[in-house]
Amino acid sequence: MEDREAELSGATEAGEHSGNSGAEVESTLPAVSKDKAINELLVLCAENNVSVPNSLKSALQEEEEGGSIGQEQPAFDDASRAKSSPSDVSILSSLAASHQEDVLRFSEQPIAKEVRNVRGSLKSARKKYEVRIVDGSYTVTNPLPDDYDAVILRRKGHGGDEEDHAAGEEKPHIPTVASSGGGISFVRKLGHFFRTGRFQFSQRTETKVIMDRVNLRLESGKMYLVLGQPGCGKSTLLKIIANNLTQDKGHVVGGTVEINGIERNHKPLYWTNLVSYIDQIDRLHSLLTVKETCDFAFQCRVRTHMTPNMPVDDPEVQERAQKLDAEDWMVTTVLKAMGLLRVKDTFVGDDSKVRGVSGGERKRVTVSEMTCVGAPVQCLDEMSTGLDAATTFDIVRLLGETSRITNTVKIVSLLQPPPETVALFDELILLDKGRIIYSGPVVEVVDHFEDMGYKLPDRMDPADWLQDLPTKDGADFLVNKNQKHLSNEEFVESFVSSVKGQAALEQLKAPWPENDLEPIEGKAYTQRYTNSWFESMNLAFRRELLLWWRDKYQLKARIMQDFLMGIIVGTVFWQQHANPGTVLGVLFQSLFFISLGAMLKVAPQIDVRGIFYKQQDANFYPTGAYVMGRSLAALPTSIIDAVVYGTIIYWFVGLAYNDGATVGNYFMFLLLVLVTAYCAGLTFSIFSAISKDRSTAQAYLSIAVVVMVLFSGFTVQPDIIPNYWIWVYWINMFAWMLRALVVNEYQSGKYSDPVSTDPYAEYGESVLERFGFTLNGEPFSFIWTWYGILFSVGTCLACVLCSVYFLIKIRHETGASLAAHMQDEGDEGFDNEEDTVQLEFPRVNLTFKDIHYTVTASTSDEKLELLKGIDGYIEGGKMTALMGSSGAGKTTLMDVLALRKSSGEIEGEVCLNGHPQESNSFRRCAGYVEQFDTQTPELTIRETVMFSAKMRLDENDTAVNKESLNKWVTQTLKMLELKSIQHFCVGSDLTGGLSFEQRKRLSIAVELASNPSIVFLDEPTSGLDARAASIVMRGLKRISESGRAVCATIHQPSIAIFSSFDSLLLLKRGGETVFFGELGEDSCNLIDYLERYPSTPPIHLGENPATWMLTTIGAGSSPSGDSRPFDYSASYS
Predict the structure, then answer these.
(1) What's the pLDDT tens digit per position in 274-312?
(2) CB distance 1057 to 444 below 8 Å
(3) Phi and psi at residue 738, in whole multiples of 5°?
(4) If we measure between CA atoms, which residue out of 629, 800, 604, 624 comes closest to residue 688?
C-alpha cells in the first residue's frame, strides 16, 4: 500500500512512469511543474466527487507549509482524512485508499470519459439530491392461527407429541383445507367457548415491529451499503425509501421520508419517478433478448435523451439528442458498462424452458433494466445474488462512478460482500432488528466497534464480522472475554450517543439549504407516465406480440392441436349435416373445444404477473394500456383456432354453403368461432388477476366453465330453464355464440323447404323451435348472429375493464417464512454413535480431458463454443470449486460432467476411476443439487428426505431395512443441521415455509440420501448471508470428509469459504482454463502461480484471494477487464 501511495505522489514530479500499478494515473498528469500537476489532480478529484488520497494531501500540506504553492486550491473535506496511522491501518482503510487511486484511473477510462462528454454536449444541468429519513418505522399486524392456544400449550409442555416435546421440537401450523377451512375454524371457536365461556367473534392478531426509529441523511454523489443479518430490515429500509411497502390497517409506515424537502406523499409528485427499486428476485421475460429488455424500460420511462435538465431551445443540443436516440446510446452504454454487450442479442432465458444467459448475467440484466430508467435515487436490494465477486466489484465500482458523474444517490444491500467491494462504498449502514447500530464512513466502521472492545479476527471478511457482531456469536470477538456482550439496545444507544450519531441527528434537524438543492418539478416527476396511453399500449402490444411469436413450441403445439382435433371431430361427424341433433352437437363441441383452449392462457399470465407488478410500481405504463396491449396480442391465437379448426370442421361436417346458403355463411362461422375464442380468453384472463396461484385459478375456471356449459342452451334447452336462472342464460357469452352459430346454419337459406306436416313452416325454423332457440315463441332470425357478435364485443370490453380493476386493486404477496419462528439450535453433531449407520459406497475419482461444448445461438444459426478443451479431475474425499466470471461456463461444465445436457455437441473424454463414463451406472452414484431446486411443499423435511432415500437406495442391499433407513435419514439431517426442524413443512413462496437457506440444505440432504459417491452443487451459497453460507459449507465439509467427492460452482466466497475448498478449477469468460490444482494453505499455490506473471497486480493485505484472482484475469463486467493484454488461459495451456 505504501508503494502505491509513493507511486501516486511521485506522479506529480517529472511525469516519469515508475511502475505498472501507477502508470495509468501517471499518464493522466502532464510532465510540467509539480505545482500545476497537484492542482490539476485536485480539480479532477473535485469534478468527480472523489476523496483525495492521503499521500496527495500530505504533499499539498508540505507545499503549503513551504509556501511554494500560492494559487487558489480546491477544498477537500476534512472528514475524509484517515484517522489511523500507517502502522495501524485497518483492512477497509487500506483498501479504500487503494480504491481512491483506482477511481482516478477509472474516471479516465473510455466509458467514463464518454459519459462525461455526452453529458457535456447535452449541456445537462448537474442537479443535487438529498434524502432525509426521520423516525422511519414499519409495523405489521398479522392474524394468529386458530390453533395458537394449542401451540402455546405445547410450548409450555401441556400437550402435543411427547417424543417431539422431549426432543425440543415443535410441529408448525401447516395450512390445509382441513386445518384452515371454515369448518375447523368454527369447531375451534366452539371449543374456545366451552373452555372460557365466551365466544370469540374476531380473530386475534399479533403486531410486529419490522423497522423502528430509523434516522438517515443520504447525499448526492454518494453510494451507501446496507448490511445486516437476514430479517434485520435491509429490504424494508430500501422499500421505505422507495415507498414500495404495502400500506393498510395491518401495515403501517411511520416517520417521514423527504427528497430535497418534498415528502413522499406530496401531490402531484409521483415518488416512483424519483426513486427506483431493484428487487432481489429477477423478474424478466425469458423470450426477450438482453437489449430488448433494457430498451423496453428506456422507451417506457425515458424515451429520449432530451431530458428536462437540458436547454430545450438549443438546436445543437436537440440535434445531438436525436443522434443519440438513433444510436440507442443510453441502452448500449449501460450494456457495455455491465459487460453484457456481447450477449445483447441472447435471450434472457430462465431456469426451466428457455436457454439464455447465465444466472449471473441475468442478475446484471435486472440491474441494467432499472439503470436505464435513470432515477436520481436508486435502491438495489441484494443485487449481487448469482454474481461472481469480480463482477460484483465491477458493477459496484461502476455504480459509484455513475453516482459521482450524475450526482445521484445509490443505496445497495448486499449479503456477502468481500472487503474490496465494501471499500468501494462511501458510507455503511449496519442494521440489527430494525434499528441502526452504525451509519457513517466505511473506513471508520471497524474502528467504531473496536473502540467498544471488539476485535476483527485475521482472515475474516469485515462484512461478515460486522453482521455477526450483534448476534450471540459477537461475544467471540470480544478482546476481554470477561466483558459483557452488548445487546441490540446497547449497540443502538452506543451509536446514537457517539459524536457521529449526534452529528447525524443535528444534520437532520438543520433546515433544507435553499440554493444548493434543485427544486423537484417538471413533467418528469409530476406526470406519472412518460408516454401517452396509446403509446404505452403500442409498446405493450408489440412486446406481447413478439413474445407470442418467439414461443415456437407453444405456437406449433397450438396449430397441431387445432389440426388434429379438427380431423378427429370432422371424421367422426363426416357429412352429418342432415341430422339437426348431430349438427347442434358439433357446434356445441366446437365452442367447448375453443373455450378450453382459451383456458391455457391463464397459467402463463399468472407466471409473468410478478413482472407486471414490478413494471407497474416503476410507472412503465398504465395498467389499462398493458391489459389492452396484451389482449390485442392474443388475437393471432384466436385467428389460428378459427382458421385451422373451424375450416376443417365446416367442410368435413358439410355445414351450409349451397342450396340457398352462400360462402358468406362459412366466413360468418369463422368469425363466430374467432370471436368465441377471443372473448373466452379475455373472460378467463380475469381469473389470472384475482387468483393467488395456478391451483386457485384452475378451481375458478372449472366453476366458470361448468356454469357456461350448463346455461349455454345445449345441456338444458332455453325454454325449460327456470325463470330464476334464466338471467344467467342471457348474460352467458357461451349461450349467445351457440345461438349465433345455430342461427347461422339454420337461417342460411339451405333449410327453407317447408315441413311435410306444416306447409307454412320452414324446416330450419322448425329445428330452431324444436331445440328452444325462440323468443316469445318465434324462432331467432339471422340478425341474432350479429347480436351475438355485438354482445361478445361488449363482453370483451367489460372483461378488459375487470382485469384492469383487479390488477390495480389486488396485489398477491408471497407468504412469510417459517424460519422466523424457528429456534436456532446451532451446530448439530453426532452425539450418539448408535444413531449412525454406515452404508457402503464406492469411492470415486472423476477425470475429464479436452471437454468441448458447442450450441447454436438464440437468434441465429451461429455456432457458439461454450467450453474449449477443459481438463481436470474431481478427487474423492476432497472439495473442488469451479469458479470464473458469470458466463464463463461453470454450470455448463458441471452439467456436461453430470450428464445433464440434452442439447448441443459434446466432445472429450470423461472417466470414472479410469473407466469411461457410462450413463446408468454414473447416475446411480452421483447426486446433483440445482441452484433453485423444487421440493413438494406439503411434505415435511423428514418426509422429503425419507422419500428420496426409499426411492433411490438399492432395495437389494441387505444393509437397507426399515431401522437402518430411519437412522440413515436422521444421520443425513444431522449432517446438514436439519434435525431440529425436521417436522416443519417445506412450504412455498406463496404459502410460506422454509427459508431460502434451509431449502438449500434440504436440497443437499435429498441428494445425499441416495448415498452418492460424488455430489455436484450449483452455487450452493448464492443468495445466502455469511452465517447461512457457513452452515451450508459445514455440511459440504462433512460430506467430503465421509469420502465423497464434492464439486461446487461458487460465485462470491468469503475468505473462510474459499479456504474450505481443497482444489480449484478457474475458468475465464469463453470457457477456457486459467488455473487448476490444489489451493494450498491460505491459497498460496494459487497466489504464487498468478504472481509469476509480470502483469499480475500484487494482492493487498486482507484482500480476498477469490476476488483478487477474478479481477486479475479480467473476469469482471468492466470492458477494461476483458481487454487485458495478458492472456492467462493461453499461458496455462
Answers:
(1) 899 988 788 899 999 999 999 999 999 888 877 666 666
(2) no
(3) -65, -40
(4) 604
Q: Is the dihedral of CA 390, 395, 398, 399 positive or negative?
A: negative
Q: Exposure of 272 by Cβ count < 10 A (0-12 exposed, 13-18 middle, 19+ buried)? A: buried
Question: Any bridge partners for residue 1073, and if so which?
Answer: 1067
**Distance, CA of 106 to CA of 118 (rounded, Å):** 17
Q: Nearest 5°: phi and psi at 722?
A: -55, 150
Lowest mean pLDDT among 15-24, 247-256, 688-697: 15-24
Under the banding of pLDDT at 50, 70 and 90, the label for residue 158 is very low
1066, with CB counted inside 10 A (0-12, 13-18, 19+), is buried
Distance of alpha carbon 601 from the chain centroid: 23
In the chain, the amino acid numbered 351 is D
- What's the full length of the chain, in residues? 1133
User: What is the C-alpha to C-alpha distance for residues 1021 and 1029, in angstroms, rounded to an integer?
Assistant: 5
> 1120: pLDDT confidence band, cut at 50, 70 and 90?
very low
Distance, first Cα to last Cα, the chain:
33
Distance of alpha carbon 37 from alpha carbon 49, whole angstroms: 18
The mean pLDDT of the chain is: 79
Residue 429 C-alpha cell reads as: 449502514
Give CA–CA dist 1101/88, Å, rounded: 13
Task: Note if the bond before 268 is cis, omega within 30 degrees.
Answer: yes
Residue 873: which of 895, 848, 852 has the closest Cα?
A: 848
CATH of domain 281-374: 3.40.50.300
Specify the DSSP element, H or E, that contains 947. helix 941-952
**Mean pLDDT confidence for 596-604:** 88
**pLDDT of residue 114 exceeding 90:** no
Cell of 356: 439464455
Angle at 824 between CA 819 and CA 826, to 5 degrees: 135
Give the Cα separation of 810 and 697 in Å (integer).
14
Q: How far, in Å, CA of 306 to CA of 523, rounded?
A: 13
The whole-number average pLDDT for the span 386-398 is 78
- pLDDT computed for residue 511 by the predictor: 86
Read off the pLDDT of residues 256-274 as tens digits, 9 standing for 90 and up.
999 888 888 888 788 888 8
Residue 942 has a CB neighbour count (10 Å cut-off) of: 20
What stretches of 777-859 show up as alpha helix (H) in DSSP? 783-809
Which residue type is seen at 197? Answer: G
Cα→Cα distances 269→257, 272, 396, 531, 884, Å: 13, 9, 30, 17, 45
Strand intervals (E) in 158-250? 205-218, 223-227
Give 4's Cβ-side CA count (13 Å radius): 20
Grid cell in block for residue 53: 488520497
Q: Which pLDDT score is estimated for 11? A: 36
CA dihedral (647, 651, 654, 660) positive or negative: positive
Q: At what angle do helices 533-550 and 552-572 cross, to 10 degrees?
A: 70
Q: How many CA atoms, within 13 angstroms, populate the side-chain half-sphere of residue 825?
A: 16
- Phi, psi of 387, rounded to the nearest 5 degrees: -100, 145
User: What are the start-end ranges of the H helices in 1091-1132?
Assistant: 1105-1112, 1128-1132
Architecture of domain 833-1132: 3-Layer(aba) Sandwich (3.40)
Q: Which residue has the higher pLDDT, 1057 or 625?
A: 625
Q: Which residues pair with 257 in a beta bridge?
A: 133
129: which residues sit within 8 A by CB, 6+ positions away? 220, 259, 260, 376, 377, 407, 408, 409, 517, 518
Residue 165 CA, chain-centre distance (Å), reads: 39
Name the segment(s) of the chain with CATH classification 3.40.50.300. Answer: 281-374, 833-1132
**Cell output for 231:** 430479517
Spatial neighbors of 33 by CB under 8 A, at least 6 apart, are none
Cell reading at 491: 449497540
**CA separation for the pair 434, 214 (Å, rounded):** 8
